Amino acid sequence: MSKETRKDFVLVIVTAIASAIGMASVFVACRPLAWIAIAISDAYLALVLLFAAILSDDRAFAARWPWITRLFPTRTAALFVVALLLLSIVSGFAGLYVGTEVFSSNKTPGDALYLSLFTLAFTDYSPKPGYGQLVVVGQVASGILYLIAAVPLLVSRIATFASP
Predict the structure, then answer these.
(1) Minimal CA–CA distance to 90: which of 71, 74, 109?
(2) Maximum distance among all alpha carbons in the chain?
(3) Distance of CA 90 to the CA centre of its chain
């Protein structure tokens, strides 16, 4: 297995684990698991965004700190990483919605996943004041981070394909 393939494999496994943690948080109604999935996804996206900005200004930075390039997947792996990050974020916030007082009524796992996906798309579902509003604002911030980090990452990776 090449070094590049091993790097991509690790990225896919880490994002798959974050997604699995997020999905588990939905079905066992465990808020700490949900926060872990969200933290892993958002931390990865923030680091990718930060290091992409640094590398665009200083190409020698990668030579001084070669481990940074391990955060950036290749084209094929980027498809999986971006999809798994979306699943992790959506399911993580759905895990916060299940059985809690975020909205006016308790949500089943299916309701929470549906609601979380559309809250990520910035739809207004009127959360309860306090904790409910904090969770939804956090999800909107996470959604914005996803849009400005993951989507351009995927597009840039696909756009660099070689002509046959």
Answers:
(1) 109
(2) 56
(3) 8
Could you tell me the two tokens for 3? 């070094």
pLDDT digits (tens, 9 = 90+) for 27-66: 998 889 999 999 999 999 998 888 888 877 777 777 787 7
Residues in the chain: 164
Dihedral (Cα; 65, 71, 75, 78), 10-degree rounding: -170
Please count the structural domains in the chain: 1
Residue 164 belongs to some domain of the structure: no
The pair of three-digit structure tokens given for residue 87, joined into one six-digit string:
């699943």
Domain hosting 81: range is: 3-159
Picking from 146, 154, 88, the residue whose alpha carbon sits closest to that of residue 122 is 146
Instruction: Name the amino acid, one letter, at 122.
Output: F
**pTM (2 d.p.):** 0.80
